[in-house]
TrEMBL record:
Gene: P2rx7
Disordered: annotated segments: 377-402
Native source organism of the sequence: Rostratula benghalensis (greater painted-snipe)
Keyword Lipoprotein: yes
Swiss-Prot/TrEMBL catalytic activity: Ca(2+)(in) = Ca(2+)(out); Na(+)(in) = Na(+)(out); K(+)(in) = K(+)(out)
This protein's name: P2X purinoceptor
Length: 539
């Protein structure tokens, strides 16, 4: 069971390490991005190629990071602007009734120029403050619908992404080794192609291109790298995710202004102003690379072992807190405490007893307040011999002839004693000797019944002269059993035989108690010459 438990913990820990990748060192990517937009669209008066619809991006690099590109989809054009005086566009702070409303030299944040201090007619409906600016000023009307460059949906962009893992000195590119320049990205059929159709990007961001093209917007192209750089399980390919960043409900859209300047033959400078609506694409690169590192494995394994120790401590605290409530009285908690804590007692203050009609060894604590037979104790060991009394013991080797003779002689002795023994109140077998000392008042049984001394196996294992003699000679082949001291050796060995039989393999000779009936049966079979015994002690 222990090996199975340890194997389970090892498998669990290994699985946790592999899933959490604690065996690998981690490095973050350093990245660079290059983009190239392709596509041509036509309107009533001109052809739009990449030079036309990407010029505003070059003019507004201060507004965007180098990992962004802008594609114009709609615009408002104000032609033939020149530096002169003209009425301001009629917004709230520019509308006036007289010159008193206009302040010479002032400029509101919404003004297209600097006020001259005059109030002039804008049209038949409004009068506005005159400004010195590029005139005529650009109107604040809404962009045209549908978008002028609605065909930009079919434009494509090539995104080249170089990444490097500095710790591992490894450089990678998002283009496959065999690059088909005519491929178009599709997350199902061509997930590694770096050429994207703009309409597909907007669709993957859950947006409608025709609607978004009117006022523009901001789209994030996320390139995610999650690389396993170990040679056996190498996996390092980019994953693309698309998302709209501007809020389509609160001030949606994105635009920039761009002007084209020119001079007339007379030297006058003029320009054409474009208010360009379009989609800004922000390319965001993130990712990590992992590679096996033995130091990382050792460190993280140690940390995980410490984590298991913290879990054990937390459980101990939880059980301790719960023990102060009703749960502390439950049978589960009592079993838990008995399994967890072992009470260490002074060997002098305890005794062990075994009853033939109970399958365990019982521990009794001193001092005794009643007979040892009636004192309650605690179970400390299952008595395996109890379940195997009917099986053949391993230590008997005598021949059948010797067994029959000895059983006949012992049977006579047992029958004679059965009629003469006094029945004590604490005795349940009728074979015990009377005594006034509590620690000597112990029977072989807990309940009334046949004495163990009358059993076949008591005669064979404990009283058998042939068995005991062979056991002594097995230990000391040159032992002289012919002298007058042989009974003492046989008697002491009989006591040990009984203890090993009834208490198992414990070394309990000094603490285990031999019942009165068994003790006296051994003494009567192998008596002292003086017939003088010390009572409780095994002598």
């Amino acid at each position: 069971f222990l090996w199975a438990y340890l194997s389970f913990l090892f498998c669990l820990a290994s699985y946790f390490i592999l899933i959490s990748r604690f065996h690998q060192e981690v490095d973050e990517v350093t990245s660079s991005v290059r983009t190239s937009v392709k596509g041509v669209a036509s309107t009533e008066d001109r052809i739009w190629d990449p030079v036309e619809y990407t010029l505003p991006m070059q003019a507004s690099l201060h507004l965007m990071s180098a990992n962004s590109f802008f594609v114009m989809t709609n615009f408002i054009k104000t032609e033939n602007q020149s530096k002169q005086r003209c009425p301001e566009y009629p917004f709230d702070k520019a509308i006036c009734n007289s010159d008193n409303f206009c302040q010479n030299g002032s400029a509101d944040i919404l003004n297209n120029g600097i006020q001259t201090g005059r109030c002039v007619d804008y049209n038949v409906t409004f009068k506005t403050c005159e400004v010195h600016a590029w005139c005529p000023v650009q109107s604040m009307e809404n962009p045209p619908e549908p978008a002028v460059l609605s065909g930009s949906e079919n434009f494509t962009v090539l995104i080249k992404n170089n990444i490097i893992f500095p710790k591992f000195n490894l450089t990678l590119l998002n283009t496959p080794l065999i690059f088909n320049t005519s491929c178009i990205y599709d997350k199902a059929t061509s997930p590694l192609c770096p050429i994207f159709r703009l309409g597909y990007i907007i669709k993957e961001a859950n947006q409608n291109f025709s609607e978004m093209a009117v006022k523009g917007g901001i789209i994030a192209i996320q390139i995610k790298w999650d690389c396993n750089l170990d040679s056996l399980v190498y996996d390092c390919s980019p994953k693309y995710v698309f998302q709209r960043l501007d809020d389509k409900k609160t001030m949606p859209g994105f635009y920039i202004r761009h002007a084209k300047y020119y001079k007339l033959p007379d030297g006058e400078e003029k320009r054409t102003l474009f208010k360009c609506y379009g989609i800004r694409f922000d390319v965001l690169v993130s990712g990590i690379g992992r590679k096996f590192n033995i130091i990382k494995l050792i460190k993280n394994t140690g940390s995980m072992i410490s984590y298991f120790a913290v879990v054990v401590t937390a459980m101990e605290i939880l059980i301790f807190v719960a023990s102060h409530f009703k749960w502390g009285k439950s049978s589960f908690y009592k079993i838990y405490r008995r399994k967890k804590y072992e009470t260490v007692l002074d060997p002098i203050q305890v005794m062990y007893v075994s009853y033939v009609d109970e399958p365990h060894v019982t521990l009794i604590k001193k001092p005794l307040k009643t007979s040892l037979q009636h004192t309650q104790g605690s179970i400390v060991q299952s008595n395996k011999n109890h379940d195997n009394e009917g099986s053949e013991p391993m230590c008997t080797t005598e021949s059948n002839k010797n067994n029959d003779n000895e059983e006949h002689e012992l049977g006579k002795l047992l029958k004679q004693e059965a009629s003469s023994s006094d029945w004590q109140k604490w005795c349940c077998c009728g074979k015990c000797q009377p005594t006034q000392k509590y620690h000597e008042q112990l029977c072989c049984r807990r309940k009334k019944g046949q004495c163990i001394t009358t059993s076949h196996w008591f005669q064979q294992l404990v009283l058998s002269h042939d068995t005991l003699e062979k056991a002594l000679l097995y230990k000391d082949p040159f032992l002289n059993l012919a002298d007058g001291n042989s009974n003492k050796q046989l008697r002491h060995l009989a006591y040990k035989q009984y203890l090993q039989w009834r208490f198992g393999c414990f070394d309990l000779e000094d603490r285990a108690v031999v019942p009165s009936c068994c003790r006296w049966k051994i003494r009567e079979t192998y008596p002292k010459a003086s017939n003088n015994y010390t009572g409780f002690k095994i002598d």
